[in-house]
Write a structure and sequence with these properties.
This protein has helices at about 20-35, 40-45, 50-65, 70-85, 95-105, 120-130, 150-160, 175-185, 200-205, 215-220, and strands at about 10, 110-115, 140, 170, 185-190, 210. The chain is an alpha/beta fold. The chain has a six-stranded parallel beta sheet with strand order 3-2-1-4-5-6. Helix 1 (about 20-35) crosses helix 4, helix 3 (about 50-65) crosses helix 4 and helix 5 runs parallel beside helix 10. The chain binds calcium ion.
């Protein structure tokens, strides 16, 4: 990989910049169980990045043999959000600050590409990672029509960073996120911060896999 050509690094958020996936896994498993559906923790990680209704419909098909109604989706997602909000606030991912600092030292832009729609996002990002992300360099749930694995979020990230696919790198932790980045034509670094085997991330199209953000920071020199 020739880093001299790289002008921007596009960062996913949950599971990359914040250690928030254990909270999401807990909340999904509890919420769907309460509604007569079933989902394992591992399945939460496999579905990471999908929209709430996309995830719920897949579970409904499996158990009920039909899609969930809009009402059911809203109810289950509200319960999921309720459980999620009882969780302790997710901490910044270990090693992520070092990665961001190194990327800045190398003269590359930092762009956020997340499917999350939390309104307090920018505040939390600025608190954990001061001076790295500006609002015009963020793609959130409010900016896109399609969620990952559709390439749209990453194509929008390229646009916001004013770079071509060949001038960017993506840092992702989830299979569907990796698929989205590869579909956008971008070199993709996977950091395996969850319980899935590396092979799942490689099969999704990752160009290289690191075991943690610390390991990635070390590799950046
Ligand atoms: Ca993620």
């Amino acid at each position: 990989m020739n880093f001299e050509l790289i002008k921007a690094v596009l960062f996913d958020m949950d599971g990359v910049l914040f250690d928030s996936m254990p909270n999401h896994a807990y909340a999904w498993v509890k919420a769907v169980e309460e509604c007569g559906l079933h989902m394992t923790r591992e399945e939460v990680y496999m579905n990471e990045g999908r929209t709430g209704s996309g995830t719920i419909n897949a579970l409904a098909q499996r158990t009920w043999g039909r899609d969930a109604t809009e009402e059911e989706c809203e109810k289950i997602y509200a319960i999921k959000s309720r459980y999620f909000n009882t969780c302790p606030e997710a901490l910044p991912m270990e090693g992520a600050a070092e990665v961001l600092d190194k990327v800045r030292e190398m003269g590359m832009k930092r762009v956020l590409v997340t499917g999350s729609g939390q309104v307090s996002l920018l505040d939390r990002l600025n608190q954990a990672y001061p001076d790295h992300f500006t609002k015009d360099c963020m793609v959130t749930a409010f900016d896109v029509r399609y969620g990952k694995p559709h390439p749209e979020p990453y194509l929008m990230g390229l646009k916001k960073g004013f770079v071509k696919a060949s001038e960017a790198i993506v840092v992702e932790n989830a299979p569907l996120g990796i698929q989205a980045a590869k579909a956008a034509g971008i070199y993709t670094i996977a950091v395996n911060t969850g319980p899935l085997p590396d092979q799942v991330l490689i099969d999704a199209g990752a160009d290289i896999v690191f075991s943690s953000m610390q390991a990635l920071a070390k590799a950046l020199g």
